[in-house]
Structure prediction request, 980 residues.
Amino acid sequence: METLLISLLNGLVYGMLLFMLASGLTLIFSMMGVLNFAHASIYMLGAYLAFTVSEYVGFFPALIVAPILCGLIGAAIEIWGLRRAHHNGHIAELLFTFGLVFIIQRVVQMTWGMLPMAYRVPPSLDFPLFVLYGSNFPAYRGFMLVISAAMLLGTWLLLKKTRVGLIIQAALSHPQMVSALGHNVPRVFTTVFAGGCVLAGLAGVIGGNYQTTEPGMADSMGPIVFVVVVFGGLGSLAGCFVASILMGMVQTFAVVIDYSIADLLRPLGLAISGDTLLTEVLTVPVARIGALLPFVMMVTILFFRPRGLMGTRDT
Amino acid sequence: MTALSLRDVRKNFGPTEIIRGVSLDIAPGERHCIIGPNGAGKTTCFNLISGRFPISSGEILLNDQRIDTLPPHKINRLGLSRSFQITSIFHRLSVFENLRCALLWSRGYRYSFWSPLWRQKALNEAAEHLLEELNLAARRDILAGLLSYAEQRALEIGMTIAGGASVILLDEPTAGMSNTETDYAMALIRRVTQGKTLLMVEHDMKVVFDLADTITVLVYGQVIASGPPEAVRANRAVQEAYLGALEE
Amino acid sequence: MKSRWLILVLIAAAIALPWGFYDWSHHRHDGFLISVLSQTGMMIVLALSYNMLLGQAGLFSLCHATFFGIGGYAMVHFLNAAGHDELPVPMEIMPLLAGLSGLGLAILFGAMATKQRATAFAMITLGIGELMATAALMFHHFFGGEGGVTTDRMIDNSVFGLTYASGIQVYYLIVAWTLIAVALMYFLTLTPLGRMANATRDNYERAQFIGYDPRMVRFIQFALSGFFAGIGGGLYAITYEIVTFDALAAPLSANALLMAYIGGTTVFGGPILGAILITLLQSGVSLLSNSWLVYVGVMFIGMVIFAPSGLAGIIQAHGPIQRAGRLGRLTVPYLRLVLPALALLLGFVGLVELMSFLTIGAAQGKKLILFGNPIDVHATVPWVVSSVSLVVGGTWLRFEAAVFHRVWERLSAEVSR
Prediction:
């Protein structure tokens, strides 16, 4: 029971963090038709920038400053890079963002070094929020939940109540119509791209000290976020949300499940013994293959629903 | 026996019904034109027949065989071929390669990765012959994307008829052409569709009345008249809805 | 005609190069050279098979190393079986088995991935690649976990009675298989499937209306490209006698993409050029500099924006001007580009190296040494020099590039008339 509740909360925290990344990715994709491979790299930049900024002015100003810096970087990428690559076709855009991954990765390594940063939870939030059956729930995770919920609400209001939001919504359902609208499309693109980067940066600020701020964090986060977006269905914000939470839960629960497929089969009278690849697959406990699960889930859902959980678009 | 037949075909996009119960019978060898104002659903009709979109209800038969549940490539293999209003060619392949690609399936090559193209004599001759027929022989090795507009339209028609389909759907083949280009294109269409069933969407009334055996008038997704050119010209409803406004 | 000569020269070079550096006094081949050349061979196979997807079918795949890696792992198990006399197949045929392993896995994953188009395809292949890389670390029976699996290539079963104890024998086996694979892949581009792959790349929808199922075209193309990648992986296993998860992980997939794209995806030989270039750079520059990935990354992005048809595409673009005999008129504009480009390059490399020595180098205890002089990365002068060189070179290059562009346009116009 206690592991269940704690895992549920942890899964929610992780899921919301995933959603913060995945929603930016989905917005950019829906609007511009570009999958930003460098999205997780911006997340990493957010964490590093937050670390450096908080060294000087403390964590809470960094919570504002770092995402804004990421947004500016995003705008620069869109204006001077992506827009030029756009002329060379769709695949060129994908390739461009893919190339950015390398560059950001190395720039981070060159600027901050290869070792993990001492980016810690601020002392004012470093206390147990409450105790459940003897286990602590850190206040910082509660804070993460608050921030991500606020972000969710903010994005929702922005989409529902503002002009840009309306255009983005229109683009979500009728992508080909965007160019037909009389709006300054390039500026909308820049805004959306920068906005997505702000979200990724924010996720980096609060994720950087929740996980570890180190040069490999983009590589470990990136694939999971892409899986979330595909699993939920490309272009669907609702699907993206469900998939994020689900993936968060799966990841945290997998760690605590010590059963294997063989354990499931045993009550049925099937005993598994021997030493082959198949028996290894069957007897490995779920906890050990936690990292594998998101990809297995993605492949499975695509087999049954090629458009993902709630996707409506083909591309 | 009909070459192509639509029975109470309907199509909704969301809550809006675009095609509202169209029925048509086209005899083998007939030249049939569909006319109608913008947004009447002519191109949508083509998209339904060729399998690009699924229909909402009704039946479509090609040579008395149901095709409305089949994907486009299967419909094509049964002998129905279409062109596009917005030129649709393989722009990074040469003109010759475009035509050869269009010939491949009907000549039984399927997905062959063992027969080298340069050794397929009959296939290559057919492609060369088609080039001559389209008057594109001089442009043989140019990338299709670099052709002039009228040349691209000719290539599009060539690719549509290449596979030897018995039913040909042409979507505004003369759109955006000058008068001489139009005359040339119509002569080409007559020549290459000889003995085939032709269904065509066209805006140019001169072309329509010149070419068609039967004309169908589509307005807001419904057939308001269908028959020989004289009958359609004389039809009061058509005059009011459409012709009058165009011919003034 | 010209390209035929080029092919012959390349083959001759591949055969002769090891002897050019033969150490006659010790009767020994240059081990480093043989290893670089062997690697170049398998990378050519990898890059070309990748281009069957990217360049020829317009498919942006991110799991190509999966099939390379599985070919490698399978090869290790085949070799081990052959070593225990359980698999009576001579060494010379073995890479074919590795290719078939790649084909098998590509059929499985291709059936899933090719249902999708464009972006979704890219993401699914990314997922597949991660799935396999993670699985490789987890399951010990087939993949050996983090340590990988090892083998002994001296299975004593050869058509020519060779032992494959020395690197040079393996190298010639690689040359032979690379030639076979390249020839087969070239042949594929001349078949109906190869042509229809181009067609679905250019216009997915139109392919349907000439009777082809574009998904089937892509599926077969995908499977075949997995076959060739598997052959490449087999050669890898023979060369190194160990296969770890590096052989199927994301960095290698990315490498396949870089090689194919930088070399040029629009020309068949482009990826060969890319594979040679990147492998040489990798074994040369990566020894000198920590930051070689930055250079490759910047080069890649530069190409995406300014030269999407790659190096081979740039060379090909000179064709019409060369045929008209006016290549000489480009000499001066080209020469004028050299100085500013050098300045830009120096400035950029300088800044990157300074920065990297400030952080990574310091952590490793290395010092930046230029022409024998240690350079203090904390001093102001090198930073200022590099920055000035970068900015001046960049501005100057923009100006000269505009001049070059004008000459180029004029020449192209003259030639096409």
